[in-house]
Amino acid sequence: MVTPAEGATVTPAGVRYVWHSVAPNASYRLTLTDEASSFRWTQDTPDTALALPDSVKLVPGRSYAWWVDALTADGRVASTGIRQFRTPK
Known about the structure:
mainly beta, two-stranded antiparallel sheet, elongated
């Protein structure tokens, strides 16, 4: 399961990002941009899930893009690719 799903409409409060593991001991970087391609949030983690912190506010009725880049212990790189979602008006 990867969430938010491509094209989903999600409530701005409590957004949780989930993706698949690519390998044991991989590290991940989640990036979130708004519809103007401005960076809104970036977070590094060893986990495959992150919650949007309260300090990052999503505007109702807007589109956002997110992706996760992974680095494995042996130096391989992988990405979820860009996924987009909207917030309700």
